[in-house]
């Protein structure tokens, strides 16, 4: 605010009022304009079969439940409309919540599980109704029906040393 501050001595001129805003880091969200960004790790089996997660909402004591039914790939983004920050130009309009994912790959896959995957890969190519998204192993992508996932995927070793998708391929 130009010339809205205290007078400079006896000069008759007023100082400028300047506000410096420093945005604090948030442990869950990053702000980009009116949008809120959230990055979340997700185990491979959930990435293939769908999942639901909760995160605190901006409103006090509220929680957002977000359902992901799509197959999550390393480039997948979930956008939740209207759950971001209020717009500075129109407080009734809100930005979006944009969620990106880091797929957590199993550290070890047994030889028998690898053989089952290879067997499923052949069946998926022959039978389009049983196609799988197996981008997790060898970074090969197949079109998917996310509900058709072998049971052994849920039994893979997800140790603390798992590889996120961004470093696996």
Shape type: elongated
Beta fraction of the residues? 15-25%
Supply Rg.
24 Å
Mean pLDDT: 74
Q: Compute the number of helices.
A: 3
Number of DSSP E strands: 7
Distance between the termini: 52 Å
Structural class, from secondary structure content?
A: alpha+beta
Helix content: 10-25%
Unreliable sequence segments? 127-152, 160-169
Characterize the biggest β-sheet.
Answer: 5 strands, mixed
The topology string of helices and strands comes to EEHEEEEHEH
Please state the oligomeric state of the protein chains shown: single chain
Can you walk me through this structure?
The protein has 3 helices and 7 strands, in the order E-E-H-E-E-E-E-H-E-H. It has helices spanning 44-49, 111-126, 165-168, and strands spanning 30-32, 35-43, 51-56, 63-68, 77-80, 97-105, 163-164. Strands 1, 2, 5, 6 and 7 form a 5-stranded mixed sheet that branches. Strands 3-4 form a two-stranded antiparallel ribbon. The protein starts with 29 loop residues before the first strand and ends with a helix. The model is unreliable at 127-152 and 160-169 (pLDDT under 50). By secondary structure, the protein is an alpha+beta fold.
